[in-house]
Write a structure and sequence with these properties.
single chain, mainly alpha, Growth Hormone, Chain: A, 78% helix
Amino acid sequence: MPRTSRTAALIALCAAMLMIVLDGSIVTVALPAIQRDLRFSPSNLTWTVNSYMIAFGGLLLLAGRLGDLVGRKRMFVAGLAVFTVASLLCGVSTGQDMLIAARFVQGVGGAMTSAVSLGMIVTHFPEPRERGRAIGAYAFVGAAGASIGQVLGGVLTQAVSWHWIFFINLPIGVAAALLALRVLDSDRGLGLRAGADLPGALLVTAGLMLGVYTIVETSRYGWGSAHTLGYGALALVLLAGFLLRQATAAAPLLPLGIFRSRVVAGANAVQVLMVSALFGFQILIALYLQEVRGYGAAGTGLAMLPAALAIATVSLLLSARLNARFGERRVLLAGIALLVVGIGLLTRLPVHAGYAVDLLPTMLLASGFGLATSALTTLGMSGAGAADAGLVSGLFNTSQQVGGALGVAVLSTFAASRTRGLTAAGHDRATALTGGYHLAFGIGAGLLVAALVLAAAVLRQPRVRVARASGSQAAEETPVPSAT
């Protein structure tokens, strides 16, 4: 493929991912307006986010494998179509049930598109240096897009209405789909006969959906409730059944040999920890700004803008060069270290915080996310061969969504519990809320420290690809020169 065509292909892939990442965060600052307009109760309001996360996280692995079988381009474009139509339905929603159902369908389309995107970058950019730059641009979309979504969501909600946070997806989705049809390489896929593994697909999809549902509902029921323990146990049984199926199936959905790659397994584990901390931070800092400091929707979004700019600068201008010069592992460790410091600073956040002194340093240190995401994405996809790129992409995105759901649930639950305790002890509302956020940010910093230790210990000898031949799985271990 000529270089200009590869550039156009990357633009199509990044535009689609930007739309999906924006949608994941753009809703957060619009929630109060949605609640007032559609008369949501506090517990039902969370389902405008949860329904999306459950569908997205539960279907990524299946969508990635189906992309390998029926063709990644077909899966990508079909996902864009589903997502764009669902965005229209979200925007015209006049009731709670309609919005929640449309958000679920959005999650389905998002999973279909996201699951194969990284795999398509691997196949479109075979040369290591160009692939590094492409993954850097893609990582920027994932890292900075969330912060940009909060800025855009706040501005649109305050200037027009919350409906436009969904309508804005329509021109992006249509343009990305048309460009993708024109510039992406067509691939016929392996064919469904190569191994659709329907029983495995049903087990993992049900297990992941139920697991994500259990996690996000802990804020309502608590971690030790019969609801959480019961549904959590059932999710684990389904996932255990899936693993057993994969170990015995002739054509498994997820060849377990893929985890023989130390880098693939380690990168996904590090991502769960890192994203748990960062997604929780994103939600809680927005709540602090609105609930404690009294910021409006637009003000909250603009307060997050320095983080988006810092991440963008690092992701687009520095990450690929640093990865090539120092290796992905070292860049990853440096990025996570910056995040540890940034989140750690928030554990001392005062009730009457000054933005320049107390918040801006953390926003700037968020640039570590741009470093870490680019390096981790490169490492996570280094185990993908041509036949399994969609599967590895789906696995990597699945760990991101599960990590995000886990982080939001864990940090929010501990923050709420601490706030209730401080309120009962006689503290005023602002002090109690801030104390709850302190605890949550401390847990987030701890998760990042765990990610740093795990990355340093495990991500030492990355593998380039995972080979699969004649129904058997074997990891083909080839060191990546730039990861030391």
